[in-house]
Automatic annotation (TrEMBL):
Family, similarity comment: Belongs to the TrpF family.
HAMAP family in the cross-refs: PRAI (MF_00135)
Cleavable signal peptide: none
Example GO biological process: L-tryptophan biosynthetic process
TM stretches of this protein: none
Gene source species: Tepidimonas sediminis
One Pfam family linked to the record: PRAI
Documented EC number(s): 5.3.1.24
Domain N-(5'phosphoribosyl) anthranilate isomerase (PRAI) intervals: 6-212
Listed NCBIfam families: PRK01222.1-6
Protein known as: N-(5'-phosphoribosyl)anthranilate isomerase
Entry keywords, A to Z: Amino-acid biosynthesis, Aromatic amino acid biosynthesis, Isomerase, Tryptophan biosynthesis
A single MF term (Gene Ontology): phosphoribosylanthranilate isomerase activity
Length: 222
């Protein structure tokens, strides 16, 4: 049976971190992008990350950050995986990550046909990434709660390969994620808005329902 990795992003409260881990999340994300309504400081990310049990990965999300900002995040959360969600080049990502694993977000235009977004070209360009977070193109770079046209991208193209580790993102909810996992068969999924009571405040019942909905699709797979 396949096991889709689950990341819950944009946490700002200890109770939400503890609930996400207890409910079965594989990773939780802390947004170190000051313009986000879910932004936390590096020190706060460190406090929150210390609530995680072993084997649940903290992810630090940056948008076009400077090296000193990434360094401050890594000092506070030394075991973090990095997620670059802006306009960073492959060279920027590698330099900022300093040998740590990093994910790069792709921002897919909304609307039918995904605006001609070329997933294969993106995967080639970011071949050094540990994973590709495939998100919708929204104002403010992310966390907008909008889904792009999943049917428009060549998820099973052999050139993409298993190594690309596609993380489906953008507008996922407990109601649509089972279908998303069935159609895309991603390595992982990433959600923020769809499990929130308010920006940065997670709803425990929605988080549990989201994880159960992913596992439902996993249980159908061979
Ligand atoms: O969460 C944010 O505020 C955020 C800000 C800037 C860039 C990315 C952000 N979040 C990421 O956006 C996607 C999709 O979120 P949603 O589920 O559609 O709300 C997800 O990868 C978050 O990690």
């Amino acid at each position: 049976m396949r096991r889709t990795r689950i990341k819950i992003c944009g946490l700002t409260r200890e109770a939400d971190v503890e609930h996400a881990a207890a409910a079965g999340a594989d990773a939780v994300g802390f947004v170190l992008y000051p313009a986000s309504p879910r932004a936390v400081t590096p020190a706060r990310a460190g406090q929150l990350a210390r609530r995680l049990p072993p084997f649940v990965t903290p992810v630090l999300l940056f948008v076009n950050a400077r090296a000193d900002e990434v360094d401050a995040g890594l000092q506070a959360v030394p075991n973090a995986v990095l997620q670059f969600h802006g306009d960073e080049t492959p060279r920027d990502c590698a330099a900022l990550a300093q040998g740590r694993p990093w994910l790069r977000a792709a921002r897919v235009p909304l609307g039918a046909g995904a605006g001609g977004f070329d997933l294969l070209e993106f995967a080639d360009r970011f071949a050094a990434a540990a994973g590709l977070v495939v998100d919708a193109h929204v104002p403010g770079y992310g966390g907008g709660g909008h889904a792009f046209d999943w049917n428009a991208l060549p998820w099973s193209h052999p050139r993409l390969g298993a190594a690309a580790r596609v993380v489906l993102s953008g507008g996922l909810t407990p109601a649509n994620v089972t279908d998303g996992v069935r159609r895309v068969r991603p390595w992982g999924v990433d959600v923020s808005s769809g499990v929130e009571a308010a920006k940065g405040i997670k709803d425990a019942a929605l988080v549990s329902a989201f994880i159960a909905a992913v596992r439902k699709a996993d249980a159908e797979s061979t």
